[in-house]
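Recall from the previous lesson that a structure prediction takes nothing but the amino acid sequence as input. Here we apply that procedure to Leucine-rich repeat-containing N-terminal plant-type domain-containing protein from Tetracentron sinense. The sequence below is the only information supplied.
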Amino acid sequence: MAKALVVRDSDGNTVVALPPFTISDAKVIDRWYATFLYDIKALQRLIPLPEPAIAMAGFIALKLTFGVFPCFVALLLSLFLSIVAFNFSLCSGDPNVVCIERERQALLTFKKDLKDPSNRLSSWDGDEDCCTWRGVGCNNITGHVVQLHLDNPISNSTLYDLLTGEDEAFNARSKLSGDVINPSLLELKHLNYLDLSFNDFGGIPIPDFFGSLRGLRYLNLTEARFGGRIPYQLGNLSSLRYLSLRRDYYDLYADDLGWISHLSSLEYLDMSYVDLRKAVDWLQVVNMLPSLAELHLSYCRLPNISPSLGYVNFTSLVVLDLSENFRNYTIPNWLFNLSTSLLHLDLRENSLRGQIPNAIGNFKSLQFLDLSGNRHMEGRIPSSLWNLCNLRELYMSEINFRGEIGFVGNLSGCFGKNLESLDLSLTQLTGHINWIGRLKSLKHLALDVNSLYGPIPSSIKNMASLEDLSLSYNKLNGTLPQSLWQLSHLKVLLINSNLLGGIITETHFAKLSKLNQLDMSSNSFEFKVNSSWIPPFQLVYIGMGSCILGPRFPSWIRTQRSIYYLDFSKARISDTVPTWFWNLASRIFILNLSDNQIQGNISNIMLKSETVDLSSNCFKGRLPRLSPNVKVLRLSKNLISGPLSPLLCEKMDEQKNLEILDLSENLFSGELPQCWMYLQSLTLLNLGSNNLSGKIPSSMGSLISLSSLHLRNNSFSGDLPLSLQNCSLAFIDLGENKLSGNIPSWMGEKTTYLLVLRLRSNEFSGNIPPQICHCTSLLVLDLAQNSLSGAIPQCLDNISMMASTQIFEDDPFDVIYNYGSYEENLILLTKGTELEYKQNLKFVRSIDLSGNNLSGIIPSEIFSLSALNILNLSRNHLEGKIPEKIGVMTSLESLDLSRNNISGEIPQNMSILTFLSHLDLSYNNFSGRIPLSTQLQGFSELSYIGNPKLCGAPLLTNCTRNEVFGGATSVGDNEEVSEMTWFYLGMGSGCVVGFWGIYGVLLFKKTWRFVIVVVNKCKHHRFHQDLWGVPDPNDKGLSRKHIIEGTKVSIKRLHVDYVAHIIEGTKVSIKRLHVDYVAIAWILRLRSRR
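The prediction returns the following tokens.
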């Protein structure tokens, strides 16, 4: 949601002006603004209060400015009258009245223990009247100090400052700090107002003596970075009306909240982010506060939420925030007892379950409702919700509503008239959005990440006040309506990742002068703007990936002075980067120009962006210089050359923050330098496919955060350095190099969380270390094409992830960074072909030990890995048999055991490996008949050749009785006679049963009757195409594996078990087959396809 914060003093001068934010990026900041408004001290600090009349005028101006917020008139007016009753002199008073000397000395003593880097307290001088000091308020009659406004001032930030952190840097410089709060404040006997918010006291405890400042009515320690236990002495402040202990960093906790029950006058309580997990009585305590109007307990880890409450005492409650606390609860019944008073209800991120109750419609006065992030809630939106005619802000994202969104078409007139913010993103809703034009007061609309379809309606013109529109990640199609470009208040337009398209010109943007965020990426837009176009807007966020912007580099971007995010990826730009762009880029934090054909020499530029992606272009020259701010640098697939040392070894005054470095597929050469210790933050390194050589430097071991290392396809040599065990490696790809020596045992001892180990095509020797079995999370083990010897470790069944089809909740191969992600990639030999895996890598389970000198039997344990997809043990010296338990490998897709010395029969249960699509058992010592099944006979004879004792289809070698039954009967005509005897016996009964079984049914089944007509029309091989849907074997487009060449089929040689196979793969004349049997086979096959 987005709101502008504008506060003016009584003269109309702007005191605070902050720009709008989107719902997705600034909801936290937005809620902070709301809390800030409820705080009455904002009136005192931002609006002069010399007399009640001016104060009330300022209050009215504030109220009018913030029409978008809930109007808690009763609360604000009560607090206002309570404060103005104290005639203090922050701005005016009797000039003859000066502060009390004792109190002046107390303030000076208090100041001595404070650190004040920005000299905010410079006016606190010993020779002046303390009532004139900054932040000090005195009673203008008695001179007593009654107020201390020592909160850190809020910077007047722009959206760019907030996104880049410039505002936080400013605020940090002005924070007060200290190791102790001096108890000299106890001398301020008349102090009723103390504000230390947004400072930094480094985790020191809240002083117990605060509980002795009994005159306090207002105590604000919001985000002042106190820590430890909250002192129960605060319960002595019986006059307290406002208490905020909201934390932001250090652990602040309370074991119980009994002391709060003594604060009978309390009207405002904020303990958000305070650890209250042990405060089991929290609800009973706050229920004892009859005057409580606002309660903020966000993310307090509250232990429970009672479904019922005998007597609800806090009926004055106007604002209730219980967000980010509970797990697996329903909305409690007692909450509905507050339906007459509650204006603001925040229950987001609570994992509430069940449906939204219809009783939600009883909150007739409700202006703000947030149920977002309750992912276990489901069902439909209750119709009673649309009767909340005072509702202005409604947030229900990340709830499993599902289904059509058409119910919104039943909106009552009063609901659509007042609603200003609506968020239904990530709710799995489908349908059109024609209804949005009814919400005429809407300023902020978020429907992103759903399955909405159809065009954006032209009725959007009715939403003349619209400021934020987010429709990203849907299935919306068509062109953008002309009425969209008439929304002159629009500041945020996010329509990326849809099916939208059309030509966009400069005239479309003529009225969008307030636009500051635009994302149209991942659609089919084509921009046709004049090279001299000067846009009317100043964009901070620009997303135009996959839009056609080229071939020339967009020159209008030069006019944008405050860009934070720029995405011109896949934009068909084939131009040289203009020199002025690199000056502009120095202020861009996220820069993405990837997947174009952009040219230019980048040797002499300085990259300062936090994220830089220039991959898949035509950049050349040497590596550019980097600012310490750069965290992600992606330069893969370019023409950059030279050594890496200038980039890696340049010493800087500040520590380098580089986390992701991808320089793969370039022209880098030489050896890696020994200066990796300067990149302590590095987590991912990809130098694959270059011309690098030499040894892997031992200084890489200083990269203790390194989790992914890609050095494939270079010329690295020598042993792996022992120091690499110090890294946090989960992904290792060192394939296609010249590395030698033994595979180190630390790969299993120190890298137990390893997911991928790829060392193929190197010169490693020795045994496979059994420590590999400790890597229970391993998904890919590729040690192929080395010189490894010895036996395969018997403990491979310890790799539990290869026996599990567990789906990762978060993709371990998708490295997320600010506004982007890095997708790991891996090249695997699968089904005889090298394939690159990216998005589907998390589903792969693979072992490849091929092309080594391994010997001994294949351990049976390896066949217990039921989730394994790929197993390649070919070209070794393995012996023994394939165990029967291979049948449990139900996920196996590719099996290659070729060119070994494996013997025995092929296990019958291999026929149940239904996912098996690549099989190579060639050149072994297998014997006996190939098991009969559609699965195993579906492979070509090349899968079985080189096994002299193997027989049966698809091989041309027929099996003898001995090979079929394992007996000693001699091979000859007897076998043929026996085979034909069984064939004709089966055929005899088949003639009778088959004829009447089929033709009888055909009398009643018209679809089957159609089949037999086709049978009668079949001639020769045409039955392939007419009945089976299989092309004619004479068709050149058919693979050779479907044809058994040179085979003559006669009825006397035809075994009943082979009928289906021979029909599919051989040219057969219809007159040679027994019609009733063949008809059964064809009809059943066709019926199953239906």
